[in-house]
Amino acid sequence: MYRAGDTRLDGVLHVAPKNPGFNCGTLVGQNKGVNQTPAQPESLVKSKQRVADHGEVFTPSWMVEDMLNLVKDESERIDSRFLEPACGDGNFLKVVLQRKLATVQSRYSKSEFEQNHYALFALMCIYGIELLEDNVQECRENLLDVFAKYLKVDSESSWYQAAKVVLAANVIHGDALTLKTPDNQPINFPEWGYLGGGKFQRRDFRYDSLTQRSSIEGSLFEFLEEHEVFIPTKTHQPMTVQEIAQ
Predict the structure, then answer these.
(1) Could you give the CA distance from residue 94 to residue 147 in angstroms, rounded to a whole number?
(2) Which of 59, 76, 96, 139 could form a disulfide bond with 90, CB atoms 3.0-4.6 angstroms apart?
(3) Would residue 198 count as lying in a domain?
(4) Rounded distance, CA 12 to CA 68, Å?
């Protein structure tokens, strides 16, 4: 999603189609006798007031696909981590998750145990920050829906409940520019890892600490050991899906 004033990569690449008035549906079924329904235009705003107040304009799906194709290999790699700093209702993150799950399917479909665990790990590697609270909830729900449909589980499943816990930690209500939540607390993100054998590792970090790497490279601090720069605020014991879901 793009907001006016954004200087991040996603904002820079948000450009209008060359002919915004062109409706591709008008060219479908031009031959006589062919009955085609024109494609419905994609809604990119929730209301004019939200555009005025927050500069909220969602990215069209074709552009999401085109942008992710620029990093196609990374968007399909299960353990690559994606952070969308203005995630809206998750239109970028949903596609990333779908691509990751396609990789899970191709690699682990012969083992339900591994397939399920790597599907959850794919979800664990997706992060979002969003300024508007209703969008945060929609983003979590949309990602949960993609995950649940892939594993064919319902709300009673421990996989479903574990995914809810993961999304509550990974998709944050906050401001990516100030790096803080609405109550002025620093944004924290978990780093998840799959250890194998059904066990997951979690370490929590402050987001403002994670952003320091780009500022220290090439400086006097570049010789610091990694652990001196990135100190987790909390390290959890290895957990099973059932333990995450609790």
Answers:
(1) 9
(2) 139
(3) no
(4) 14
In a 10 Å sphere around its CB, with 0-12 CB exposed, 13-18 middle and 19+ buried, how is residue 69 labelled? Answer: exposed
Using DSSP, state whether 49 is helix, strand or coil: helix
Q: Is residue 178 part of a domain?
A: yes
**Residue 102 sits in which domain range?**
42-186
* Residue type at 136 in one-letter notation: V
Single out the residue of 40, 50, 227, 222 nearest to residue 132, CA to CA. 50
Domain count, the chain: 1
Structure-block tokens of residue 118? 């790597």
pTM recorded for the entire structure: 0.76
Residue 161 lies in a domain: yes
Does residue 109 belong to any structural domain of this protein?
yes
CB atoms closer than 10 angstroms to residue 136: 23
Range scoring the smallest mean pLDDT among 51-65, 74-88, 137-151: 51-65
Asked if 87 and 176 count as a contact pair (C-beta separation under 8 A), the reply is no
Model pLDDT for residues 106-115, shown as the tens digit of each residue:
999 999 999 9
